[in-house]
Amino acid sequence: MLKRIPLLAKVSIAPLVAGLVLLILLAWQAHALGEIEQDAVAINLAGSERMRLFKLVILTEQYTEHREPKVRALIDKEMTTFEAILHGLKHGDPQYDLKSVGDPELIAYLDKRGDEWNKTIKPLFQNVLAASASNETLRTLKDHVEAYVTRIDTLIALLQAYSDKKIDAQFHLLWMFLLANIVIGLGSVIYIHLIILKPIKMFAEMSKAIAAGDLSRAVPVLSEDEIGELASDFNEMSSRLKNHIEVLQERTVELEAQKALIETDRRTILGLKRFADNIIASLPAGLIVVNDTLKVRSVNRSFREMFRLKNGEDVSGRELGDILPLPDLRQQAQTVLASGIALRGIDVALGEKWLRLTITGIRLAEEEEEEEEEVLVAVEDITELKVQAAHIEQLAFYDPLTCLPNRSLLRDRVQQVLTHSTRHKNHGAILFIDLDNFKTLNDTRGHNIGDLLLIEVAKRLQDCVRSSDTVARLGGDEFVVVLEELNEDTQQAVAQARGIGEKVLATLNQPFNLQGFEHYNSASIGISLFRDNEIGMDDLLRHADTAMYQAKTSGRNTLRFFDPDMQVSLEARATLEADLRHALSQQQFNLFYQIQVNAANHPSGAEALLRWLHPERGLVSPLQFIPLAEDTGLILPIGQWVLETACVQIKAWEASPLGCALQLAVNVSARQFHQPGFVEQVREALIKTGAAPNRLKLELTESVVLENINDTIAKMHELKQIGVRFSMDDFGTGYSSLSYLTQLPFDQLKIDRSFVHNIGIKPTDAVIVQTIIGMGNSLGMEVVAEGVENEEQRDFLERNGCHVYQGYLFSKPMPIKEFEVLIRMPN
User: Fold this and answer.
1) How far apart are CA 713 and CA 536, in angstroms?
2) pTM above 0.70?
3) Rounded-to-integer distance, Cα 23 and Cα 157, Å
4) Residue 494 burial by Cβ neighbours in a 10 Å radius (0-12, 13-18, 19+)
């Protein structure tokens, strides 16, 4: 019953006062615990600010290397968060569950750190992010950040001290509360005697235990009155206090871990800084940093190695020109300081070295007016690059054998001379020089001797002209001399050019000593005179080339000036050559046939003669296009077409009683006959068409036969084995040896038309004809006379033993249809 009596009835005013004091203390304790929790949040966020600074430095280094927009956005976000937390520590911020620290000392310290951030650290970040920062600028940023991190550590220490101070105050207040309760308890003992003495003692013991740090005990609830409620509340307070202390201990452990992590990061950043310093020291380019008075501050290791400076040699304070003595370097550095514009790609020579300089200004903090601007000079040794460039230029513009300008450089020199002639109205000249019979020297003595001749010719040509003139080699044995500043008068300019040309001829006629072999040489020279830009460079060179060929055709070892009529002839020849290249594919060729008859006027065979029916020119003379085909090599496909077409016709005549016995003669050129696969080509044509080999007769001239006598004999015997017959065409016009004639398996001799034409006109030619007929009959060869045009010639030939004839007396060359009509006619 006593337990349920209200405490108000049990105690007097003193216990009531003690209870009120206890309630007030509990409220204050709850408030203090909230402030301690706020302090822990502030300490934690201050620690995160420290890590965020290091993160900003690392992100900034990444951005300066790669300039990635997403990295820049992350930097801006981290800066905004940093500033918001710094502001929240001072003024409070609900976003981060922060209230103002309230302490004037802390607020003053936060004001200084905020000013330092806004005026120093943040502008340094912005400066590095805004432009391509140098290593020096990044190094300065890191130094300031490290100093600022130290101040953040100081802030954390101040917050911790401020929190500890609050905790100490709470413990002091707790002690005061215990003392007050003891005093009130003693009064209550007197006042209420034994009713509440025991609970008060228990509270006292519990308070002592709590003060001693023992929060595991609880006050027994002995009554249901206010004392019992107080005991319950006391126990609850003890439990909450225990929980808060445990939270503070956990936060303390976390802060210690974060502190260790920050220390690890600091050491990592310092290691990276040392690594970056080592990289700069080992860069291949030499680096010099000078102040605004151009006094040297420092140089890197590469510069020391490049200019052989001792590692221990102190160069700081020395003049820039002392360690890098270049005439314009000081002025260039001052220009960079004045304008702020970097100078790049400055190539200069220093002794035997070639250097490439880059001069740029560097400023660590533009906001500080007293900050001294410096100059960075980067020095690269490009000596090897210059050597390589010179070598490349030599390969690109000079002939590697003679070291003369090549075709590319020649064109540039000719254009310069043309421009100079236009400006000064004087003449110039192009001398196109081609060595005579150079191929013979190469074939007989070897290409090494030919190269020696070219080298010596180049030297002699250079000795014949002035230093302002140009001597170039186009390739092979072709040289070009460009003469400039000849007389304004055309005749005098011609005389000057001729004089130099004749001097060149005379010089080249002197013997050459080629490794002990004395060689006599000559040349053909074509000269093209010019003034102003009357003719273009290409035409000018072509004119000189044309004149050179005229000198060749005039007997070699001479010179000729360009003749416009000759150019017209060459252009016509070039046009004809272009048409000839399409004639075969466009089926413009035809075979005409000229009959060969015996003494009884019966057909015994025919000669296949090539004709070109041009769609615009009409019938083109063989005298025009056959030599051209020989020169261009087109005679090979054309000759193959003639051979195959003739074989087709032989096969077609097999079905004709009048044509089945006819032999068909085909002319073969030297180039066609001496190609490696000629025998196989003839064999394939016969097999492909099915023509009888013994009805095919190949006509060879003496020049074809004697060009390579051993090759000729071998091929003729191979073809004779399959039945092909041979005729020696134009016999008597060459210089054949009778000994060769006896070795060659000819079936027929053809007396050249020039001898037949002079029968009855020149007695000597008639004797030659008689000799040829007699020789042929003696060797068992059939003799054919071509070019028979009258009965007197035929009668003479028949009387002297020639019984086969060909010529206009019997028929002119005609298309196949007309020829077949002809052979069907009696006699």
Assistant:
1) 52
2) no
3) 34
4) middle
